[in-house]
Design a protein that fits this description.
This protein has 246 residues and is mostly helical. The chain is built from 12 helices and 4 strands, in the order E-E-H-H-H-H-H-H-H-E-E-H-H-H-H-H. The strands form 2 sheets. A two-stranded antiparallel sheet has the order 1-2. Strands 3-4 form a two-stranded antiparallel sheet.
């Protein structure tokens, strides 16, 4: 929430829903200079959301939330989605969703403050900050603990204090950097990689080289659904024109 000094009102982000209805990304994502924002469709089991939010240990909420997400490439999920009336264009968008890759497939993104139990669908990839000055002359690729942004601080933001989860993702990102450097220099690939080389190449493509259409996969035509909802609710809530003029 922010204060608009021109309108003298407190305003809040609406996630640019009029643009999303027409298959366009939000303004902040479209104008991001670093091209670090992604928008895509996530399918989830609504019956598992409450259970995930009610997980006793806050550090386990992230894993419980992941269990509520559905794999759009699973035939059973596709069948259930079709029976629920989800259009084919939405299923295609879910199958090619950059968000699903980052969150569910590669599991390198986290929700902000899971301990608040709001389960927001805004996720963050922990940053690879510069290495500490005390080690920058001794190593080429540092460990997660040698970054300038403390792992404990990132864990407080993204994993309810679970530092091991943050270290896991930072380790994968460091492996990504090492793999791509080895491919450029011709050196031997690092041993005991978490993922195969093809996965790291796909990560590199999405995180570093992705074009606009790859970062934003939004199905157009949302307005037909929302407008139908508006027609159903018209006159039942809020303001209604006298005499049925609306």
């Amino acid at each position: 929430i922010y204060y608009n000094w021109e309108t003298n009102k407190a305003e809040k982000c609406t996630f640019c829903f009029p643009r999303l209805e027409n298959g366009l990304p939000t303004v902040c994502s479209d104008g991001c200079v670093g091209r670090m924002r992604y928008i895509g469709v996530l399918l989830y089991d609504a019956d598992k959301v409450k259970a995930a939010a009610s997980t006793p240990d806050p550090k386990d909420i992230y894993k419980a939330y992941l269990s509520a997400l559905c794999d759009p490439n699973d035939p059973a999920v596709a069948t259930a989605a079709k029976e629920a009336g989800i259009p084919d264009r939405w299923m295609r968008a879910a199958q090619n969703s950059p968000a699903h890759k980052l969150i569910a497939e590669w599991q390198i993104a986290f929700p902000l403050h899971p301990e608040y139990r709001t389960l927001p669908n805004v996720w963050y990839v922990p940053p690879l900050s510069p290495i500490a000055r005390r080690v920058e002359e001794e190593v080429f690729f540092p460990g997660a603990a040698e970054m300038r942004i403390p792992v404990a601080y990132l864990a407080q933001l993204l994993t309810a204090g679970d530092e091991a989860a943050i270290e896991r993702v930072l380790h994968v990102l460091l492996e990504l950097r090492a793999v791509m450097r080895a491919k450029q220099t011709g050196d031997a690939l690092p041993a005991n990689l978490t993922h195969d080389v093809e996965t790291y190449e796909a990560m590199y493509r999405l995180l570093g080289l992705a074009k606009r259409r790859e970062r934003f996969n939004i199905p157009a035509g949302m307005q037909d659904v929302t407008h139908e909802k508006l027609r159903e609710l018209q006159g039942s809530v809020g303001y209604a024109c006298p005499g049925g003029c609306c």
